[in-house]
């Protein structure tokens, strides 16, 4: 469910509802907008923060980031990430790669 909500919010950002640097509405307002509870919304926002689409600041809110110029953004822009499973697969792959890279860097 959180991944589906992440896709909804990502689509809103892509459509220009919020611009880079803008603060997203408070959690309660976002929950109403996407019709979910706070825990699902937080899961979605964490997913978006993980891929660099938003930045969460404790006690301050969540902000839309400048679009990175990486492959993930190109995939989003070209519609290659169409389902919540696509996003989950990309996030899982990234975690595997980054964990391995961190291990190599520590050697």
What's the topology here?
Layout: H1 2-14, H2 27-34, H3 38-50, E1 54-57, E2 61-64, H4 71-77, H5 84-106
Antiparallel strand pairs: 1-2
CATH architecture: Orthogonal Bundle
Query: What is the name of the CATH superfamily?
Result: Winged helix-like DNA-binding domain superfamily/Winged helix DNA-binding domain
What proportion strand?
Answer: 5-15%
Strand count, sense and closure of the main sheet?
2 strands, antiparallel
Q: Give the proportion of residues in helices.
A: 55-70%
Q: Give the CA-CA distance, first to last residue.
A: 38 Å
Principal-axes geometry comes out as: globular
Overall tally of structural domains: 1
Count the DSSP helices.
5
CATH topology: Arc Repressor Mutant, subunit A
- CATH top-level class: Mainly Alpha
Count every beta strand, where a strand is a DSSP E run of 2 or more residues. Answer: 2
Radius of gyration: 14 Å
Please characterize this protein's 3D structure.
This protein is mainly alpha-helical and 107 residues long. The protein has a single domain, classed as Winged helix-like DNA-binding domain superfamily/Winged helix DNA-binding domain (Arc Repressor Mutant, subunit A). The protein contains 5 helices and 2 strands; from the N terminus they run H-H-H-E-E-H-H. The protein has a two-stranded antiparallel ribbon with strand order 1-2. The longest helix is centred in the C-terminal third of the chain and has 23 residues, at 84-106. The termini are far apart.
């Amino acid at each position: 469910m959180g991944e589906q909500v992440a896709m909804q919010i990502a689509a809103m950002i892509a459509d220009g509802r919020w611009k880079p640097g803008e603060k997203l509405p408070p959690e309660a307002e976002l929950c109403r907008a996407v019709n979910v509870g706070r825990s699902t919304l937080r899961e979605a926002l964490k997913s978006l923060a993980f891929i660099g689409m938003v930045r969460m600041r404790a006690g301050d809110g969540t902000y839309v980031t400048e679009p990175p110029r990486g492959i993930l953004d190109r995939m989003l822009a070209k519609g290659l990430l169409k389902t919540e499973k696509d996003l989950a697969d990309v996030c899982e792959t990234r975690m595997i790669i980054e964990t391995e890279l961190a291990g190599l860097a520590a050697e």
